[in-house]
Amino acid sequence: MSMNEAMFYEKSDAGVRCLLCPHNCVIGEGNRGVCNTRVNIEGRLFSTNYGEITAMAMDPVEKKPLYHFYPGSAIFSVGSRGCNLKCPFCQNWQISQNSEYPATFYTPKDLVNRALKYDTIGIAYTYNEPSVWFEYVMDVSEIVCSKGLKNVLVSNGTLNEKPFDLLCGVIDAMNIDLKSFNGDVYRKIIKGDLETVKRNIATAHSKGVLVEVTTLVVTGINDNFEELINISDFLASIDRSIPWHISRYHPSYKYDKDPTDIDFMIDVYEAASESLDYVYTGNIAPSLPGGDTVCPGCGTILVSRSGYNVVVKALDGQGKCSGCGHDTGIRM
Fold first, then answer.
1. pLDDT in tens, 217-233
2. Which of 47, 80, 168, 224 is 20 to 30 Å apart from 107, CA to CA?
């Protein structure tokens, strides 16, 4: 276990108050917060997972998923352990909910040097929730920036305003999970805060971070047509060119309801495509619609995808359609 003093906390009568995420945990001596990665030691708050790597791989950038950020590229991807949400359907619960999962320590410099050995566009912080790894992500990201590489964050978006603003200064692209559009679902089931996630999606986009959003459509929790269309309308109110990935749930962790109905997902895809330029069906494509990137201006297939086989077909070097010149916003 690697200890590093946390950046965002204050003293309180009952111990220390963590100010990293909306839980604002008040943590007594020797105890940990909701994320299980921050501990109070003699009135100081420490991160217990600084530099602790549980997973490391070269991934297609599309696996994050990011479809509008250097399509067809590979990115060095790392994760730690811990999460500040408690989704009963978590797909990576082995590391997100297990503070004792085996890990290997890397200093920020060592990690970047490891990444530089590969043909990578940069580093992606993923697998578990990277915001609970905040100090390490910041330290690594600053070195990555100095090397002229890119930083990618795959996050649940549950972070307070000040730390999130700091991340936006070093992160080039984010995929943010918007798990529901129902505040009660966030509070009672996921143990998070919907308004925080909505604010951070809008903030990241306004600060020039390339933002894509993912919603795992979970049977019995958010598989409500009106709710999902409310998500697409919300994203369109920010910018209709924000890519939205709707993914099919499969039983995992503590939740064993049937996998998401595919016909229902296609209905959502078709309806959401009326308000958003780019809707993707992720893990049910390519056998069904929603895998390729299609120009909203002329209908040309810009990027074709079959699984992680990606072919850039009709984009110039500036992310514009080679046919009609439409600016897609795709980073190249």
1. 999 999 999 999 999 99
2. 168
> For the residues 76-101, what does the mean pLDDT come to?
92
What angle do the packed helices 194-206 and 161-168 form, to 10 degrees? 30
Q: Which residues of 71-91 are buried (b: 16+ CB within 10 A; e: fewer)?
A: bebbbbbbbbbbbbbbbbbbe
Cβ contact 49:102 at 8 Å: no
Ramachandran region of residue 252, left (φ > 0), alpha (ψ -120 to 50) or beta? Answer: beta
Instruction: Kindly list the distances between the CA atom of residue 12 and the CA atoms of 18, 34, 41, 44, 188, in Å, as whole numbers in the listed order.
Output: 10, 17, 14, 11, 26
Do the strands 4-5 and 9-12 form a parallel or antiparallel pair, or are they unpaired? unpaired
What tokens does 257 get? Answer: 């309801």
Place of tokens 């501990």: 39
pTM of whole model > 0.85? Answer: yes
All domains of the chain, ordered by start, with CATH? Answer: 4-47 (no CATH), 52-289 (3.20.20.70), 292-332 (no CATH)
